[in-house]
Amino acid sequence: MNQDERQAIARTVTGFFQELGAQLEEYSEGRAVVGLTLTEKHMNNASSLHGGVTASLLDIAMGLCGTWAASAEDRRVAITLSLNTNFTATAPVGTHVRAVATCRNAGHKVFMASCDLLDQNDKLIGFGEGVFKKGAYRKDLP
User: Fold this and answer.
1) Are 96 and 36 in contact (CB under 8 A)?
2) Where would one find coiled-coil regions in this protein (predicted)?
3) What residue ranges do the domains of the chain occupy?
4) Which of 22, 63, 74, 141 could disulfide-link 78, Cβ–Cβ 3.0 to 4.6 Å?
5) In this predicted structure, what is the pLDDT of residue 128?
6) Three-state SS across 40-58?
7) Among 3.90.79.10, 3.30.390.10, 3.10.129.10, 1.10.3720.10, what is the CATH number of 3-140?
8) What is the pLDDT of residues 19-72, one digit of tens each?
9) Residue 91: which pLDDT band, with cuts at 50, 70 and 90?
10) Sign (positive/negative) of CA torsion 42, 85, 79, 112?
């Protein structure tokens, strides 16, 4: 998938993804990588990565990896049924993190995925697993 195709897919991921400032770095069948350079708005009161941002990045990447489509027109949304998040390290402002998600098993309607959140040195910041339902086509939603 070239950069233009990846950007077209990224434009279909609306709402909180865009508010976070996340970027779709890789997207292929069964795999998605979502990146984010941390700013002050991503921090908690202890000046390290907020757990809600970690959980959101894992959720977004896993939802994308199970709804892969070659074109933006064919991408479905993912509905999170279950999300398990584990926190392993902190990350300060300026750190570039990547949520690297892999689809572990997929049926017609439900899929399972796992995801690692890594910093620019591949240090594990957090990880998780989720169960998702394939929803409507993104093009059919407001």
Assistant:
1) yes
2) none
3) 3-140
4) 63
5) 98
6) HHHECCCCCECHHHHHHHH
7) 3.10.129.10
8) 999 999 999 999 999 999 999 999 999 999 999 999 999 999 999 999 998 888
9) very high
10) positive
Euclidean distance between CA atoms 57 and 101, whole angstroms: 10
Cβ proximity of 101 and 113 under 8 Å: yes
H or E, element range at 4? helix 3-11
What is the C-alpha separation between 35 and 98, in angstroms, rounded? 4
Counting every residue, how long is the chain?
142
Sheet holding 23-28, edge to edge: 23-28, 31-37, 96-106, 110-118, 124-137, 76-87
Retrieve residue 92's tokens.
């300060």
- Confidence band (pLDDT; 50, 70, 90) for 11? confident
How much of the chain is in helix, strand and coil states, percent to nearest 5? 25, 45, 30
Beta bridge partners of 129: 84, 114
